[in-house]
Prior knowledge:
Layout: E1 32-37, H1 39-50, E2 54-58, H2 63-69, H3 108-118, E3 152-156, H4 159-172, E4 178-181, H5 185-194, E5 198-201, H6 203-216, E6 220-226, E7 229-236, E8 239-245, H7 249-261, H8 269-294, H9 300-311, H10 324-353, E9 372-375, H11 379-390, E10 395-399, H12 407-412, E11 417-419, H13 425-430, E12 438-441, H14 446-459, E13 464-468, H15 473-479, E14 486-488, H16 490-503, E15 510-514, E16 517-521, E17 527-530, E18 538-542, E19 548-555
Parallel strand pairs: 1-2, 1-3, 3-4, 4-5, 9-10, 9-12, 10-11, 12-13, 13-14
Antiparallel strand pairs: 6-7, 7-8, 15-16, 16-17, 18-19
Amino acid sequence: MPPRAEDPSPLGRATGTTGAPPEGNGTPPGRYYVVIGGDVARKVCGTLQAAGHTVCHLTQPTDEELRAALTPGGTAPSGADPSAPSGPPDPFAAPDPNGHLGPDVTGAGDVAGAAETAGAGVADIAGAGVTDTGGVADTAEAGVPDTGGVAGVAILLDDVESLRYALAVEHIRPHVRLVVTIFDRTVAEQLVRVVPNCRVTSPADVVAPTFLAACIEPGLVSLSRTESGHAAARWENGSLRRTPYRAPRALRYRARAGRLRGQLRPHDGSSRIMLAGLAGLLAVLLSDWAWLVFLHHRPPVEALFEATRTVSTVGPAAPHGPDTPYLVFGIVAMLITMAFTAVFTAGMVDRMLAPSPVGIVGPRALPRAGHVVVVGLGQVGLRLCTELQDLGIGVIAVERDPQAPNLRLARALGVPVVVADAQDRFVLRELGLHRAQALAAVASDDLDNIAVSVAALAVAPDLRIVIRAGDHEAIEETRSLFRIGLVHDLGGLSAAYTTASLYGAQPPRGVLVQDGRLLVEDADGTLLPWPDAERCDHAQEESADGRPTAGRTVPGPRPRQQ
């Protein structure tokens, strides 16, 4: 376990082992939480279950279902399994004299028995699919506002739904601890202003320091932005140390040269056509001007005026004596100018009718060396692109969907975006992958990220590759065949941060990864080893077309782990 850091702001010692996460506030297991959301919410729910807590997991509940879940003492919904187990015992609980780890929590009835033994009230949870609170802690005795036995609520949906449910939860159960994921920082600030007891974060904010560090230097654990600049975290002699960070000079110079080489080197066909036509017009203009200045000894300004007449197909102002060669040149130049004008106009019209997210000059021009290719322009991809630009590193975003909602935002932020399929090796070669610093595959589909990594390794075998992926079986199978890259589980990182936020009196500073282990940096600077989140075993209700219904999910039997 890493000891306390030696810098002026130490991160603290890592304590604990593996299993269920320890609660930062020292409260025992057996509390009641409400979790709303999809895949990441399932991991949060599974982590809470593993710690011995009772969880009501909802997908997109109606107002009635949400009110029932936040109001203990109601009637369990139809289809709920009163005898469903609520999770294994907490491995972090102190062993009793008989050698057992924590309370013997094996089912709803056992949770109730443990709660009665501890003197905690037991109530039925309507709408939760669990008929026992599992010994909810007495919040009044803890000196916190009465939240009706609800220890905390986590909402992990998109911005609009998260905002709507957060306001509804605060209305139904005021002052309850709320952890909400919202990407838009303006919306997040307004929500915190209206609901002070709400902690707002987003998966992009949680994982960006880890992905950014992996793209820049192999030895970095985290690279985050602070008020005074960037701070890097790395392991040194068994200690985690934070130091101010600036990208190495060689990397900055290489990235700057790559951006300069990318100017006036368009990627799309319409820009190439437009530049070809413009180059032809300029060539004719300069040729005519040079003929008049050097052969006819005309003043430069007058020569430029007459050359412009030729390019505009008006013709020379007047014949210059019996200079037949110049007359022939003027005729040919005007005919060629008509063709170049048509080419230039076609490219310009096409570019104006379909604005390209890639620029010809300026910050949105594609860099040609020392850049990072980011595949997937979701929340994580966009945040990673802006963080890389803040470091002075060139970036190219690749998005397959031409209607992706973040395309317009990326254009406003000056991020060059190529709309193409990154699994195509020709596309990767066009992006200068063999001269890039790294490739980050951060799309929402794990298998797509793996396919992109395979194609990237075929184009540039020595390229540093960072992959966003979960616990899909294909990850381990592909890694057993060849070096696939550095894999980070976005769902696991987000679930660890959300769960720690539900536990602690203060939100954690972040989540780190060391040798595949998750470490949660607590508010006081302590590093807590955190278990890999397992998805909960709730059986999700589905509609006739197989989609999740806008309501609750109810717990089914937890399979015995092998």
